[in-house]
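Late entry, written up from scratch paper. The run itself happened at the end of the previous shift, but nothing got recorded in the book at the time, so transcribing now.
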Amino acid sequence: MKQEFDLDDIMREFGAEQSSPHQTTSTKVQGANSKRSPDDRSQTPSKQAPRRALSESESTVRSESAPVPKSVGKPSHTQRISSNPDLLTPNSDLITKNATNTKLIATNSEFRIPHSALVLVFVLLTIFAILTGFSIYVTNSGRIYPNVFVDSVSVGGMTSSEALSALDSGGWTVRAETPLQITTYLGITVDVDPVQAGVVTGSETAVAAAKRYGRSGNIYENLISYIKSMSSSTDINELSASINNDYISSVADECERLVRSAVTNNEYYIDEAARELVIIKSSGEITLDKSDLRLQIISALEEGKTSLTYNALTGEAVAPDYQAIYDEVCTGAVNASFSDDGSHTILPEQSGWLFDIDTVRSAWEAASLSEEIRIPLQVVEPEITAEYLESMLYHDLLGAVTTKYNNSNENRSSNVRLASSKIDGVVLYPGEVFSFNDVVGERTEEAGFLLAPAYAGYDDIKDELGGGVCQVSTGVYAAALFAFLEIKSHTCHIYPPNYIQLGTDATVSIPAEGRTIDFKFINSKSYPIKIVSYCEETVNESTGRPLKTVTVEIWGTLEDDDFMPIEFDNSYSDIYDYDRVIDPAYEDREGYKIKLTHDESEFEDDTGKGLRTATHRKVYDSSGNLVQDHIINPTYSAGYALDTYYYRG
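Output as recorded:
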């Protein structure tokens, strides 16, 4: 069939340039073999790449020759082609040049891509887009990949919070936070942190690792990891855990250190409850097998255990020094006593122990390495227990004195009552010193003392603050003599007092100027003592007049070698009539009468006349027999230091 082609259309099809519409010459081409003159040859000056050439098998036409009109101005399209033969592409498959004519080969129909190829491309692009989108979703999803576990707890497909809850309910958090407790020699314990040991991953760390799993590559690699996780499981703890050998070694070292320390300090000891001597065979030489202990720790942690008992010891048996053990252990019983550190506490009693050395030696030789050997002990009980000591505190009246004081001077009576109240309740532990001036304090108005008559020197009496307190210090002195306590500092009055016999009084003074005079004694007993002092106002039965008295008592505990008093006698002639009878403290002990008396002799010196006295403390048994007579005055190289009193006026 004969077809006609427009050359301009052909040129546009292959990308040729057009100058303007009026420059285009339309040439009709008829027939399959139409020819064109050589002058009508043309080529396309387009810069675009040539389109695919038409094959000769497709329909071809030859362009018929036609005169080319000349135009004024710019050359026509045909002229440009003919006048520029170099514009033709030498390798063009569409235009073929020969010596005589130019054949233009064109397709019989339009160029088309096969339909099936287009469908395939579309499908592939769609699949690629879907995979890309899913890869992005998988990479950025907030959920863990499928089939991901932390040990046996599944966290696949979960968010972080859901995974933490799953680990809590699945027991993983408890396992991560529960230490492995190692119990070894002598009950020594050491804790191992499973997370720090690298065997267990902490819950939050495990969840973070699970979120990162499969997301370390690009989006397509992450998609591949996701697809793989759908068909196989992954244990995050197995991936993340890494044994911390340094930490586990440090735990083993600590166990060894504690064991070494324990065996050094506890080679033997007394089990008081069982009353047994306990010896660990060769305890001073044994130690732990640290290499084996490390393996045991790792194995226990991997199995999820929370306790491990380890007693694998190494070392060689070395016999102990049996005699040294005996010398240290076998001591006498120790009685309960009072502390001497000022805390006034009772130190508990301690039992004494005895054992047979040959029995210990035989048991040790028959025992295995590190075996605990128990030897029964013979117990020596103490005589005084803490319970008994406490019950005996201030149980017995050791000494007491009552004196009368003047009714006419109220200031003096007030001073006596005030001083008595200050010493009442004072406790002295064994070895402690009582100082009257320290306890009563300075006699001042601020302290409540009043002006009252007092001795101010030879033949001089005047009012002083605290006048009359010497009657209280005298009572303490006389009671201390009855109690057989050690006198540390004592001075008698310058004049004979009128309320107690000579040789049993004690003056005190804290003057603004001059010598301070104090009365002191020591608790020379083995038990604490307590001073009790009180004032009373009664009626004199013989005269019917008011009677004021001050009493000082010393309470303590009678010891085995003490005289148990049943009477305190401080009477002298008809002037001093104090004689107090008391009930015996113990029915099974003999009672004694304690009597204070004195010898006196007159003297005269440059100061004046007076009396010198030596005070006796006499002890009589229940039958009235004198069993002891002791002069209490201190002794010097020249003899006794006698108390000296001057007559007044």
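The first strand starts at residue 95 and ends at 97.
(Scratch paper discarded after transcription.)
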